[in-house]
Design brief:
A seven-stranded mixed beta sheet has the order 1-3-2-7-8-9-10, sandwiched between helices. Strands 4-5-6 form a three-stranded antiparallel beta sheet, with no helix packed on it. The chain has 287 residues and is an alpha/beta fold. The longest helix has 14 residues, at 271-284. It has helices at 29-35, 60-70, 112-123, 151-161, 165-176, 183-194, 202-214, 218-223, 243-250, 266-269, 271-284; strands at residues 6-9, 13-18, 39-44, 77-79, 82-88, 95-99, 106-110, 130-134, 228-233, 255-259. Strand 4 (77-79) and strand 5 form a beta hairpin. The chain is built from eleven helices and ten strands. It is globular, with a radius of gyration of 18 Å. Helix 2 crosses helix 3, helix 4 runs antiparallel to helix 7 (202-214) and helix 5 packs across helix 6 (183-194). The protein has one domain (6-72, 105-284): 3-Layer(aba) Sandwich (Rossmann fold). The two termini are 29 Å apart. Helix content is 38%, strand content 18%. Belongs to the AB hydrolase superfamily. Carboxylesterase BioH family.
């Protein structure tokens, strides 16, 4: 079994945080501590990232399998062969039962992590009670009908990785804060967090770019029956804010939140607003 590193903080409703391309759990540290004041927060390193062992090949299916294997289902109990949990009724303090998957966990994915949690919801629906897509796109490549990243940019990253990995990663970090008023401070924070650990190897990084370029989870999103919240930055240069309306067209029940002055890292640049959105969403879910 692949060794996957995770860190858990706090008590309460469970939420798992899945980071993006080339990152690791360190990127969440301060944000996770704040979130853990009210919830049980688990931060997990993707295979080959941070302190997790690598997998070969680095594919979306393998990633999802490894994460689900290491995250235990949230406690629930059976009634007549079905899984249930207790949920407070409004007003009278009594509890009612509602049917749910055995997992009972909210999965939050940032950037590439959003692709991962969508795949987990599709292939392991019993392990997911709700999703938060943070600066995520179910299909990252831009087409005439879908807002996304220019495939040329992804190809450019892939080409430069083999020549100068560190310079390519630094360029990627810069893009995440491009156009933000406090970009210098945010970039410094990103660098300090990311380079706490060695960078993933080139095969892992190339595999991640391949997922971003080729994965299309739009059919998955449109078929979800669980609560889904999307949080986008109005100034994000990697995930255009226009994709929010497209996602709502696929899934009308999707809760769309836009932080106007945020870029690709709203949990760093606008942590208070991001926390408020996630907390409200979590409190609405009976997990």
């Amino acid at each position: 079994m692949t060794k996957i590193h995770l860190e858990t903080f706090g008590k309460g409703k469970p939420i798992v945080l899945v980071h993006g391309w080339a990152m690791h759990t360190g990127i969440w540290r301060e944000f996770a501590k704040q979130l853990a004041q009210n919830y049980r927060v688990t931060c997990i390193d993707l295979p080959g990232h941070g302190r997790s062992e690598k997998i070969d090949p680095f594919t979306l299916e393998r990633i999802s399998d490894e994460l689900v294997n290491i995250i235990p289902p949230s406690p629930s109990f059976s009634k007549g062969g079905n899984e249930y949990a207790s949920c407070p009724r409004e007003g009278n303090g009594q509890t009612s039962l509602f049917k749910k998957g055995a997992g009972g966990i909210c999965w939050l994915g940032w950037s590439l992590g959003a692709t991962v949690v969508l795949d987990i919801a599709d292939r392991y629906p019993e392990r997911v009670s709700s999703l938060v897509l943070l600066a995520g796109n179910p299909s990252y490549t831009q087409t005439e009908q879908w807002p996304g990243m220019d495939t040329g940019l992804l190809d450019d990253f892939a080409g430069h990785l083999n020549k100068n990995c560190q310079a390519t990663l630094l360029r990627f970090l810069s893009l995440q804060v491009n156009g933000l008023p406090d970009r210098k401070i945010l970039l410094k924070t990103l660098k300090e967090s990311v380079f706490e650990c060695d960078a993933p190897d080139k095969n892992t990084l190339q595999g991640g770019l391949k997922i971003l370029k080729e994965a299309d989870l739009r059919p998955v999103l449109s078929g979800l029956t669980i609560p889904v919240s999307a949080i986008l930055g109005g100034l994000d240069t990697l995930v255009p804010v226009a994709v929010g309306q497209k996602m709502q067209q696929l899934l009308p029940s999707l809760e769309l939140n836009v932080i106007d002055r945020a870029g690709h890292v709203p949990f760093l640049s606008h942590s208070r607003e991001t926390l408020a959105i996630i907390s409200r969403f979590m409190d609405e879910q009976c997990i």
